[in-house]
């Protein structure tokens, strides 16, 4: 890294230590307004006092000093009357250059004139430079960098000049000046540190006050003696006090739990309390209090901060919800009992229906064999009614048992299975003056539970018969691809009004006098979702197609 880069790096670090801002520059120019008249008078007095020893050279020095001082006064005038003329950085640079130029001129008293003066005048110059240095330390304190450079420019040449005298008094004075220089630099640094800390504390205090003022929560601060130092309006509302809470001791709240957390927050850190609080005016509150201490830069505890959340409405709502929950729980338990009783009743009824239904089906077959009316419409109607009743019975039996019985998948000959179900519904279709045609390829196998497949097929056939036109044909199509088996039920009848809801539970569409419980297709939907079967409906031009796609 070359010298230029090192200087730029140092300059960057110095800028980061104390950024230039309006407050700094304004302070520098304001203090200059007070120090420059003093510097002007001081220059004239030095010139008069040393004229007898230095003659015209001190006059030249004084002229240069007065010129620089007047230029600085002019800059001060422009700063006050036409601040917008330059940027903030430019004002700062102009001030810095003029100060350093003035420091060089003042420093010249030591390294130019002291060697030509006797001890009496040397002491005078020495005292003058010490006074100027001390004054500069104060007037330039707003920017510690300028102050340190200013003091260094004046004091270091002075110390060098004293060392070059080669006398005991000179050596003693140079040592004193070194100590004075170190003390001035230390004072400047301490002043900078103090200003930095004060600025940080002020920023924290302003931030804290702004947070307190704008917070929707009750917030307040207190000292180590638990006296309230600041409180926002919400604190007054909760504690039921007027605007005289500042200075009030928290011990007057007469609540040991609350008082305890404020005490502990000063010694053990973060504390919290949730519970009831009765304000002096008799108002009940349910509050959550959080308390924690705050410290200065030396880690000394200065006090604490309290945050109060008014949870009264939430507490009341929670109590109401608890009561409502208990009521609802009791109602749920009651309804659950009724539901279980209803399920037991339906299961018992299904069991009771099975025996007479079996007897009716057996005896109907016997009557058909013993009479010559095998093809009569009466026998057909009886068979149709029995098959429909049997189908409804199987639906009901599946509904009440599917949440208790695990229907395991098995390999099924889909071709034979589908043909058997079509044969079962042929009687119902003929009784309703409708026909069923099929396109079912041979030797198609599928893995699914036989009961669930039967419910899927039967419900679609039953719906097709029920909602198709008289003397219409119902088509059953089974197709096979490399990865899928596709089953379609195609019927001619009124268009489905809402295909997106047709599988919803309890949803039915009006078809004249025909009624439905709205359970069949919802049962089919549940079976499809359980077995990962894709299902869809298409309804257009009075042709309704239900499609089911099985994975092979």
Describe this structure in words.
The chain is α+β, with helices and mostly antiparallel strands and 552 residues long. The chain has 3 domains: 13-202; 216-310, PAS domain (Beta-Lactamase); 407-551, Histidine kinase-like ATPase, C-terminal domain (Heat Shock Protein 90). It has 14 helices and 12 strands. A 5-stranded antiparallel sheet has the order 2-1-5-4-3, with helices on both faces. A 5-stranded mixed sheet has the order 7-9-10-12-11. The relative contact order is 0.04.
Gist?
With about 550 residues, this protein is α+β, with helices and mostly antiparallel strands. The protein is built from 14 helices and twelve strands.
DSSP strand tally: 12
Rounded Rg: 51 Å
Uncertain parts: none
Helix share bin: 55-70%
Please identify the structural class as seen in this structure. alpha+beta
Amount of beta strand: 15-25%
Number of helices: 14
The major sheet is characterized as: 5 strands, antiparallel
> Which of globular, elongated, flat, extended, rod-shaped describes the shape?
elongated
Question: How confident overall, as mean pLDDT?
Answer: 80
Strand order of the largest sheet: 2-1-5-4-3
How far apart, in Å, are the first and last alpha carbons? 74 Å
């Amino acid at each position: 890294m070359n010298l230029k880069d090192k200087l730029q790096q140092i300059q960057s670090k110095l800028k980061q230590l104390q950024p230039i801002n309006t407050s700094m520059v304004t302070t520098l120019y304001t203090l200059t307004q007070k120090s420059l008249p003093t510097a002007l008078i001081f220059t004239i007095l030095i010139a008069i006092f040393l004229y007898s020893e230095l003659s015209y050279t001190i006059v030249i020095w004084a002229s240069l000093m007065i010129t620089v001082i007047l230029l600085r006064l002019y800059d001060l005038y422009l700063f006050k009357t036409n601040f917008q003329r330059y940027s903030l950085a430019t004002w700062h640079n102009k001030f810095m250059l003029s100060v350093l130029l003035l420091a060089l001129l003042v420093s010249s008293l030591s390294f130019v004139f002291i060697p030509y003066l006797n001890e009496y005048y040397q002491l005078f110059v020495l005292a003058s430079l010490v006074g100027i240095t001390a004054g500069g330390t104060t007037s330039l304190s707003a920017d510690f960098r300028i102050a340190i450079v200013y003091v260094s420019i004046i004091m270091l040449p002075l110390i060098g000049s004293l060392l070059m005298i080669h006398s005991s008094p000179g050596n003693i004075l140079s040592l004193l000046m070194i100590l004075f220089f170190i003390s001035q630099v230390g004072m400047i640094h301490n002043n900078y540190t103090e200003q930095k800390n004060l600025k940080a504390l002020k920023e924290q205090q302003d931030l804290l006050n702004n947070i307190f003022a704008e917070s929707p929560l009750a917030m307040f601060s207190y000292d180590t003696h638990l006296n309230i130092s600041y409180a926002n309006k919400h604190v007054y509302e909760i504690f039921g006090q007027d605007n005289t809470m500042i200075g009030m001791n928290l011990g007057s709240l007469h609540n040991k739990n609350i008082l305890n957390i404020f005490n502990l927050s000063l010694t053990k850190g973060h504390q919290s309390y949730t519970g009831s609080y009765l304000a002096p005016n008799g108002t009940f509150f349910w509050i959550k209090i959080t308390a924690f201490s705050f410290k200065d830069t030396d880690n000394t505890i200065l006090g604490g901060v309290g945050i109060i959340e008014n949870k009264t409405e939430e507490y009341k709502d929670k109590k109401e919800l608890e009561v409502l929950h208990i009521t609802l729980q009791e109602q749920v338990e009651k309804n659950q009992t009724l539901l279980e009783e209803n399920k037991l009743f339906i299961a018992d009824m299904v069991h009771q229906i099975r025996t007479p239904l079996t007897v009716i089906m057996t005896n109907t077959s016997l009557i058909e064999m013993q009479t010559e009316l095998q093809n009569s419409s009466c026998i057909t109607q009886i068979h149709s009614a029995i098959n429909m009743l049997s189908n409804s019975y199987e639906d009901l039996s599946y509904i009440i048992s599917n949440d208790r019985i695990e229907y395991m998948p098995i390999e099924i000959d889909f071709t034979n299975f589908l043909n058997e179900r079509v044969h079962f519904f042929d009687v119902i279709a003929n009784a309703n003056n409708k026909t069923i045609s099929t396109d079912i390829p041979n030797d198609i196998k599928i893995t699914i539970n036989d009961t669930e497949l039967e419910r899927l097929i039967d419900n679609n056939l039953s719906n097709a018969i029920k909602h198709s036109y008289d003397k219409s044909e119902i088509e059953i199509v089974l197709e096979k691809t490399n990865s899928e088996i596709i089953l379609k039920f195609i019927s001619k009848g009124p268009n489905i009004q809402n295909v997106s809801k047709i599988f919803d539970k309890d949803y039915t569409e009006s078809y004249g006098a025909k009624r439905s419980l709205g359970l069949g297709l919802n049962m089919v939907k549940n079976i499809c979702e359980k077995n990962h079967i894709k299902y869809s409906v298409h309804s257009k031009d009075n042709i309704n197609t239900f499609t089911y796609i099985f994975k092979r």
